[in-house]
Design a protein that fits this description.
The protein has 519 residues and is of the alpha+beta class. The protein is 42% helix and 28% strand.
């Protein structure tokens, strides 16, 4: 029994000590909170604004192109006897590329001479047509003054006829106006006369008879001699006195002048129409003469111009005599500069004619990359900027030579801007037509305040970041400058040494935090 009691006492003691420990911990927490929560602020990672260098690079891709190309044409009508190259072959300056079989060259050149003669005849024909047209122009110029005089006379005739018609109509309308006014005055006078006559009858006959009859009935009734009929007649006369005449009003609107043409001017109008028609014909003829007189190439039709052009081309091609053509045929085609063959149009054994396209030679010493950049970067890329061109595992120096002013859609439909990047140091590792990567050095800022790009936020009103000042998170509006993949130039809004949150996370502006420099 004593052993059991001892164990129970030990248990109770342990429980009591545990409760005391919990109470002490709670009291410590409450006391700490009452002291302002010192040491409970969450730790946030910050970076300090510091000076450094930042450069902005724009990535692009495109194909390698030659900047110096020349297409070679056949100087003779012949058969290709030897052709030592094909598309993709590299050649050296002076290397013979094509040799001609000149066995039939003489016959071909005889045909060319006939063609040249035909061209000369066509040129002579065109010249004759031009001379004929020139004579027509001279004649037209000589006829213009007489036509101008006829037109002036005809204009005067039309003007006089118009004036006569107008005066005739004016006189007729004036007479018609006077007739209307006279009719109105007569109507007013007639109405006044009729009124006076009716008033005379009313005052001398109608009214006195009414008054007399009314007085007789009244006396008779007053004397007691009137019957019921007399009384009714008396009342009727009182209720229906004779009505005085009213003057009839004459409405001026009934006598308004309508202004219609009452004069017969048909003969004058016919004469004017004939004169106007003759004037129009003269003016049309004058316009034709003036157009002919002012022609840049009088009388030379489009067909004649085309004949002259063809004849001139034929003459230029056929000015070489047979010996010169034979000499060119013997010489064949040589490479004028070192490069690579592209776009061959013929092969060995083919028959070619003078001026026929043979192949294109592209220089490997003057090359560029025809690349495309995003529409969002067009304002950052300028001619003269430096660039790095990556072709396979090799890198080359480049310079922006041209920025296209017209955007074109890419395969996804997004607008892009074309740029030409000249390769400054080409070598044997260059291949025409292959894809190259381009890194354009668009902008650079040295010894300026910078921040990691992840610390910069962008809102609808511009860029901003969160800083820790006196242990409190604050939002600050900033202005950025040059931005690279890693850093952003801070042009305003922050100063060196300020602590900027890398990521605000679940915190908000105004929270108390403890800053800790990010690694």
């Amino acid at each position: 029994m004593k052993t059991k009691t001892l164990k129970n006492k030990n248990t109770i003691m342990l429980i009591t000590l545990g409760i005391v420990a919990v109470v002490l911990v709670l009291l410590a927490i409450i006391g700490n909170q009452r002291k302002g929560g010192k040491g409970t602020e969450p730790v946030v990672e910050v970076v300090s604004v510091e000076k450094g260098d930042v450069s902005q690079e724009i990535e692009a891709s495109g194909n390698v192109e030659s900047e110096w190309k020349k297409t070679f044409y056949s100087p003779v009508n012949a058969t290709i006897e030897t052709m030592t190259v094909e598309a993709g072959d590299s050649v050296e300056a002076g290397q013979k590329l094509i040799g001609f079989n000149i066995d039939n060259l003489e016959a071909d050149n005889q045909k060319a001479e006939l063609t040249a003669k035909s061209g000369r005849l066509e040129l002579e024909d065109a010249q004759e047509q031009a001379d004929y047209a020139a004579s027509k122009v001279a004649k037209a110029k000589a006829e213009i003054p007489d036509l101008e005089k006829q037109i002036e006379n005809k204009k005067s005739e039309v003007s006089n006829l118009k004036q006569q018609i107008a005066e005739t109509q004016k006189d007729a309308q004036k007479q018609a106006q006077e007739n209307v006014e006279n009719a109105y005055q007569e109507a007013v006078l007639a109405a006044e006369t009729k009124y006076q006559e009716e008033m005379d009858v009313y005052n001398t006959v109608t009214k006195p008879e009414y008054d007399k009859q009314l007085e007789e009935l009244k006396k008779k009734i007053n004397d007691g001699e009137g019957t019921e009929t007399d009384k009714d007649d008396y009342r009727h006369l009182l209720d229906n006195p004779p009505k005085a005449p009213e003057k009839e009003e004459v409405n001026p609107a009934d006598f308004q002048f309508t202004g219609t043409n009452v004069a017969d001017t048909s003969a004058l109008e016919t004469a004017m129409e004939n004169a106007a028609s003759e004037l129009a014909a003269l003016q049309s003829e004058l316009a034709s003469k003036e157009a002919l007189a002012q022609s840049d190439t009088p009388g030379l039709t489009d067909a004649a111009k085309e004949k002259i052009r063809i004849s001139n081309n034929l003459t230029e091609l056929e000015t070489k005599n047979l010996q010169e053509l034979l000499e060119e045929g013997r010489k064949g085609i040589e490479a004028e500069f070192s490069g690579v063959i592209s776009d061959t149009r013929v092969s060995q054994g083919a028959t070619v004619t003078q001026g026929m396209e043979l192949f294109t030679l592209q220089s490997m010493d003057d090359v560029c990359v025809d690349a495309s950049i995003s529409k969002y970067d067009f304002d950052k890329v300028k001619e003269g900027q430096k660039a790095t061109v990556k072709l396979g595992d090799k890198k080359y120096n480049g310079t922006i030579e041209k920025v296209n002013r017209i955007a074109v859609p890419n395969e996804k439909g997004a607008p892009t801007i074309g740029v030409v990047v000249h390769i400054d140091n080409p070598d044997d590792g260059i291949f025409i037509g292959v894809e190259a990567k381009v890194s354009i050095q668009a902008a650079e800022a040295k010894d300026v305040p910078i921040l990691p790009v992840e610390a910069v936020n962008i809102g609808k009103d511009g860029s901003f970041c969160y800083v820790v000042e006196d242990g409190t998170i604050k939002k600050k509006e900033i202005e950025t400058g040059v931005i690279s993949d890693s850093f952003a130039e801070i042009k305003s809004g922050l100063k060196n040494g300020e602590q900027v949150l890398v990521d605000i996370g679940n915190h908000k502006e105004g929270d108390k935090v403890k800053p800790q420099e990010a690694r």
